[in-house]
Each structure stands twice: as structure tokens, then as C-alpha cells.
Hints:
single chain; alpha+beta; four-stranded antiparallel beta sheet; 4 strands
Amino acid sequence: xxxxxxxxxxxxxxxxxxxxxxxxxxxxxxxxxxxxxxxxxxxxxxxxxxxxxxxxxxxxxxxxxxxxxxxxxxxxxxxxxxxxxxxxxxxxxxxx
Length: 96
């Protein structure tokens, strides 16, 4: 399992717009064959702070996610320009 934890920090005044776009991405991402989990979280203390937690069957599943029109249009085209910062961390699930 390939895991991505992405920290997004919205530009001032853009957090609600980002949340709206991310709401659209949830069902689209979850429908992808390589996606096992796609969770969008928002900080209750700082509404400009988002955490995306994603699990894919493997790294190729994540690469396929990045290649979708939805990712290119919504994440790269709409959300990234409204962010102060975007930090992604990559993991593999530890299983017995």
C-alpha cells in the first residue's frame, strides 16, 4: 500500500473555495481503481489548514491518480494556485 499525506495551507480568504473543490475531488478519487482511501481533513483550529490522507494499491496507483483530468484540473489548476504551501509525504503501510 502506497500512502500520501499532503499538508495544504490556503492563502487568506481561499480556504472555503479550496474546501469546495476538494469536496468534488473526493468521489472522483475514490472511484479510481488504484485508490483505496481518499480522506480530506480540515483543521478546526485553523480553517486554512488541510490534510489529505490517501492510500493507493501501489505507487503506480498514485501516478495514475495524478494523470487524471480531475487531478490536473482541480488540484493543479485550481487548488495549487490558491495555496501558501503544499507539502507531500510518502509512506508505505507496515504490515505483518
